[in-house]
């Protein structure tokens, strides 16, 4: 069991960083699933590499490990993986190997290597496994963030979410969860 | 006002049928002085069954930009609310930019320019139409061809610097990124202007044919890069040459009021209440700048000690100093032509 108390504004800033990363992970899961469905090898491999970086950064941010700043996405990979390597040398080495790996020549090998990478990120870094799980984690994160901000009296926009054509009036969170396999019970 | 029917109603739209209702719903909510465009990878012809759709709602002057997202079963919808004045400025900036301007152009701006240039127009006011006509796909491709080449050269320089400092994994990664952006530049010259680099391999497949000799030759160092980053960097030096070496060779100086405190292997750069720690070759250069040594002399000295070509080091440090530049700690040397 652990207990941690935070200054409210600092917590909001941290939680916002996590939500942004969970949003990024979710978008990458859509990218990956779409690329696999369309057999777009280049997009599969590029997304696989991006998943490694995003999962590593999420892991470090959750653990409140401070990270150096970076000038662009290319530098981000170096900063994040080097930071992880300082903390967990063996895991960092594995993930660097994943990122630098050549693209297999045959599609089945691309798919199996990608599946293995995602499984590693789930097992070692706690990253969500499937697309539904990714959406659920993101939605719960945003809900928590908005709830805390509201309780602190911080004004928020309600226009950030686009309701669907057939919105049920259940609110954004209800609408998002209802679209997942199994709804609130959900499959992971 | 010109008003196309909802995408899909016989106009050869690339928006999937399951999204026509989405676009129609956004269109229904438009005010009379607002315009609506649809863009993204689906409109570009690259997208897949889970690609998102990008909707732009263009609002009159003085409106704060914002983004809304909507999750759907198999994809999501992004709706960006942009001001007409901001678009007008973006269009003019990209259309009139010369090679010397492009290194400082943020990727997000070039990306938006291209997406607007290929967008399907759902509803467009007369005022917006005049602005949108500045957004041209051929211009976007030409700008990306140069921008991507500059980026490749910058990444090559940064890879060489990483190698010199002993960080072989970062060097290998940055060299591969340089190869990716070089391929992006070549493809832009062939009319493939979609900026997002995650699509580069698929653009090559579309333009050159997946698995063909031309495809393999263009993407060799992206798909199967050399294990030794030294080999990768040497190959890139021959492939990534700028029309003008001075395009990425800019002098920098400390801004007034900025000071540098040196420590072993690092420096702290101070300005007001801001403290920034810097390690590596840039810290040695900053120590020189603080001692009133010129950027050229300081970087040449560091280059000699590390075995990197001086021009390459200066290019790498220009990029590495990006955070310091954006925080107002470093600025271009005055009177130096970029």
Structure description:
The complex is a heterodimer of chains A (188) and B (338). Chain A has helices at residues 8-38, 41-62, 73-87, 89-100, 107-125, 131-151, 171-178. Chain A is mostly helical and 188 residues long. The two termini of chain A are 25 Å apart. The model of chain A is unreliable at 184-188 (pLDDT under 50). The radius of gyration of chain B is 23 Å and the shape is globular. With 338 residues, chain B is α+β, with helices and mostly antiparallel strands. The two termini of chain B are 44 Å apart. Chain B contains 15 helices and 11 strands. In chain B, helix 3 packs parallel to helix 6 and helix 5 (107-118) runs antiparallel to helix 7.
Descriptive tags:
heterodimer; A: 188 residues; mainly alpha; 68% helix; disordered C terminus; B: 338 residues; alpha+beta; 6-stranded mixed sheet; 11 strands; globular
Short summary:
In chain A, 68% of the residues lie in helices and 0% in strands. With 188 residues, chain A is mostly helical.
State the helicity of chain B in percent bands: 40-55%
The neighbouring-strand order within the major sheet of chain B is 1-6-2-3-5-4
List SSEs of chain B in N-to-C order. Answer: EHEHEEEHHHEHHHHHHEEEEHHHHE
C-alpha termini separation of chain B:
44 Å
* Residue fraction in strands of chain A: under 5%
Percent helix among the residues of chain A?
A: 55-70%
């Amino acid at each position: 069991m652990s207990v941690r108390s935070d200054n409210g504004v600092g917590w909001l800033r941290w939680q916002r960083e996590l939500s942004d990363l969970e949003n990024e992970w979710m978008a990458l899961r859509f990218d990956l699933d779409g690329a696999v469905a369309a057999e777009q090898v280049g997009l599969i491999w590029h997304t696989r590499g991006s998943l490694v970086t995003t999962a590593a950064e999420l892991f470090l941010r959750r653990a409140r490990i401070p990270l150096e700043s970076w000038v662009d996405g290319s530098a981000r990979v170096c900063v994040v993986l080097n930071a992880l390597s300082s903390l967990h040398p063996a895991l960092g080495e594995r993930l660097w190997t994943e990122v630098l790996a050549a693209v297999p020549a045959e599609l089945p090998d691309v798919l199996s290597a990608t599946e293995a990478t995602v499984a590693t990120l789930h097992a070692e870094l706690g990253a969500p496994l499937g697309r539904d799980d990714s959406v659920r984690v993101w939605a719960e994160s945003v809900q928590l963030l908005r709830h805390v901000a509201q309780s602190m009296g911080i004004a928020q926009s309600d226009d950030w979410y686009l309701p669907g054509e057939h919105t049920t009036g259940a609110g954004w969170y209800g609408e998002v969860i209802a679209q997942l396999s199994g709804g609130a019970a959900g499959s992971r | 006002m010109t008003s196309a029917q909802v995408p899909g109603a016989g106009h050869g739209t690339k928006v999937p049928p399951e999204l026509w209702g989405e676009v129609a719903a956004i269109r229904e909510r438009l005010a009379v002085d607002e315009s609506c465009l649809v863009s993204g990878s689906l409109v570009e012809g690259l997208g897949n069954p889970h690609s998102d759709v990008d909707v732009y709602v263009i609002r009159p002057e003085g409106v704060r930009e914002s983004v809304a997202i909507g999750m759907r079963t198999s994809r999501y919808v992004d709706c960006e609310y942009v001001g007409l004045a901001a678009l007008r400025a973006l269009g003019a900036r990209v259309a009139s930019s010369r090679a010397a301007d492009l290194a400082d152009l943020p990727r997000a701006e070039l990306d938006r320019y291209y997406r607007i240039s290929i967008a399907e127009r759902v509803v467009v006011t007369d005022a917006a139409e005049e602005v949108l006509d500045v957004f041209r796909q051929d211009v976007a491709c030409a700008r990306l061809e140069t921008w991507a080449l500059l980026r490749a050269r910058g990444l090559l320089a940064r890879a060489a610097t990483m190698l010199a400092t002993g960080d072989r994994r970062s060097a290998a990664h940055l060299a591969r990124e340089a190869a990716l952006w070089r391929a992006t530049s070549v493809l832009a010259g062939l009319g493939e202007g979609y900026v997002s680099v995650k699509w580069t391999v698929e653009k090559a497949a579309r333009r050159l044919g997946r698995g063909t000799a031309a495809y393999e030759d263009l993407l060799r160092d992206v798909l199967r890069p050399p294990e030794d980053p030294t080999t990768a960097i040497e190959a890139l030096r021959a492939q990534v040459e700028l029309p003008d070496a001075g395009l990425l060779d800019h002098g920098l100086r400390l801004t007034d009021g900025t000071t540098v405190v040196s420590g072993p292997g690092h420096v702290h750069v101070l300005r007001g209440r801001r403290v920034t720690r810097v390690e590596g070759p840039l810290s040695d250069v900053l120590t020189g700048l603080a001692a009133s040594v010129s950027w050229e002399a300081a970087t040449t000295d560091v280059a000699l000690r590390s075995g990197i070509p001086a021009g390459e080091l200066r290019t790498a440090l220009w990029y590495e100093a990006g955070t310091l530049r954006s925080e107002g700690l470093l600025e271009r040397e005055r009177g130096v032509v970029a």
